[in-house]
Design a protein that fits this description.
With 417 residues, this protein is mainly alpha-helical. It contains 15 helices and six strands. It is elongated and about 100 Å long.
Length: 417
């Protein structure tokens, strides 16, 4: 109307008719007709039935090509916000879980072999950090997708006097897209979106795998509540962590959605191609699935407890304080590679005697190397070992407390929760 392409009364008629169509759709009364080809033509034809001649101006300076791209970007923008909110909710659940278990030491693993002692809080916060990068990728993705294709028309733009900057601003976009061919033909914004979802899904799958393992009898570190567990149809003793198994499994589906769209787009010439009609289903599926995974993971985190007694019984195995003992020798002036060898021999001695490093006498330590002194016992045992970690980002108590406070403040949590 502002460009003189329709009158004020025509505008009012069109808007009134569209409002009526929206009400019909919401009530389930709108009749979708296959002979009208698609949603665009169904709406335009229905509008013509309602308001008559003014409806024929609805498609002025528009193509289905730029309309669907605009709709898709708007939808992805909203979906991105929803996923970020779900990520924040899971982060909050993990931080709250960490606060509940302040000071609890668990075995840290590499290659799924016992490596060093870590605070449970530190381990949980590792997932919080990964999820934060997932949210950051979505923020970046949202910034790049928030440009408006409307007005690009079929591919070449239009000679009609339209104001693309006005419509872009009205729809909340950063700006109109600079190139009309690019505007209607590329789906890289969707590929980036699904890629971000896939990375998030992989992180959730890792969390699921770890918690499934920890809930097993072999570990026994996690006790899921009955509300997030299932039994067996034949084995009455079973208590399965099904939700996290499904989280682990559904990650494959999200990666599949990304691969599906990558293959769809790989051979398309400029500009719009009907193949792109197939781009919606994997996106809708990816969004629905990732939000479900995030919500289930958050609920699981809220309804599990850690078996502190079993964890404490498991800590002595594996000589988790060996690296701290090597650091002790380094602090005495010994080159690390030499200290590594000395501690390796100390561990071998413990294995042969079925004891822990802290059970060796000072004379036995001195037999291994005369550098050892009575202060060596300040480095032995998982509690002492934890106290020796001091580097930024480490599992030391002060470092982890600082990380906890950071996330409590960032997520707006109450420490007592």
């Amino acid at each position: 109307m502002l460009q003189g392409l329709m009158s004020e009364s025509e505008r009012d008629s069109i808007l009134g008719g569209l409002d009526e169509i929206q009400r019909q759709i919401e009530r389930g009364e709108f009749v979708w007709r296959a002979d009208r080809e698609d949603v665009h033509m169904n709406i335009e034809a229905a509008l013509t039935d309602i308001v008559g001649e003014p409806a024929k101006k609805l498609h002025t300076a528009r193509s289905r090509n730029d309309q669907v791209c605009t709709d898709f970007r708007l939808w992805c923008r909203d979906a991105t916000d929803s996923i970020i909110a779900s990520i924040r909710n899971l982060q909050a659940a993990l931080v709250s879980l960490a606060v509940r278990y302040e000071g609890l030491i668990v075995p840290g693993y590499t290659h799924l072999q016992r490596a060093q002692p870590v605070l449970l809080q530190h381990l949980l916060l590792a997932y919080v950090e990964q999820l934060d990068r997932d949210a950051g990728r979505l923020v970046d993705c949202r910034e790049r997708l928030n440009f408006c294709p409307l007005g690009a028309c079929a591919l070449a733009g239009t000679g009609l006097p339209i104001d693309r900057f006005m419509t872009s601003n009205a729809l909340g976009f950063t700006a109109p897209m600079r190139n009309s061919i690019d505007a209607v033909s590329d789906r890289d914004f969707v590929l980036e979106f699904l890629s971000a979802n896939s990375i998030t899904a992989i992180h959730l799958s890792r969390l699921g795998e770890e918690w499934v393992l920890w809930a097993s009898e072999e570990f026994g570190f996690i006790i899921p509540s009955d509300s997030v567990s299932t039994g067996s149809s034949i084995m009455p003793q079973k208590k399965n962590p099904d939700p996290m198994e499904l989280v682990r499994g559904k990650s494959a589906r999200i990666v599949g959605d990304l691969v599906s769209l990558l293959v769809l787009c790989k051979g398309l010439p400029q500009a719009y191609n009907r193949d792109l009609q197939e781009d919606k289903e994997p996106v809708f599926d990816s969004v629905k699935t990732i939000i479900g995974m995030l919500e289930v993971s958050a609920e699981f985190a809220q309804k599990i407890s850690f078996n502190q007694e079993k964890i404490k019984k498991a800590l002595p195995a594996g000589h988790l304080d060996a690296t701290t003992l090597a650091d002790y020798l380094v602090n005495k002036g010994m080159p690390f590679r030499t200290s590594h060898d000395v501690v390796g021999r100390a561990v071998a001695l413990c294995v042969s005697r079925n004891c822990q490093l802290e059970n060796l006498s000072l004379d036995e330590f001195k037999t291994l190397n005369p550098v050892f002194d009575k202060d060596v016992y300040e480095y032995l045992g998982v509690e002492n070992s934890i106290k020796k970690f001091s580097s930024y980002g480490s599992t030391g108590s002060d470092c982890v407390a600082s990380q906890i406070n950071y996330w409590i403040n960032l997520l707006g949590l109450n420490k007592e929760n």
